[in-house]
Fold:
Amino acid sequence: LIFWLSLAAYSEDVEPNGRPIGMWGWGLTAFSLIITVLIFKVALETRRWIWLHHLSIWGTLIIFYGYLLIYATFWKVPINIGYDVYFTYYYNFISPKYWYTLILVTII
Structure:
C-alpha cells in the first residue's frame, strides 16, 4: 500500500515549480512513510505506556528525521557515495506534496 500510494503521488517527474523529483525524492518519501507508519503502528499496539516507550518511539522519529537533515546537508561532494542524496531531503521537506503524502498515507 505504501509503495503504490507513494508511486501514485509521485507519478509526475516534475513539480509545478519545475524542480525534478526523481528516484531519490520518491525513494526518500517511501522510506519516510515506512518508518513513520511502523512507528505509529507500534504506538497503536502499545497497551501500557512508560517513559521508555515514549523515549523509543518519539526518539526514533526525531533521530530518523534529524539524520536525514544532517546527511543531506553535510555529505562531502568529492566522495562519490551519497552524492545523489545531497539536498534531496530539503527539496522534499519544502514540498507540500511530500507532507500531504506523508500524512494521508500514514492515516490510510
Observations:
- Residues 73 and 87 are 6 Å apart (CA to CA).
- The mean pLDDT is 82.
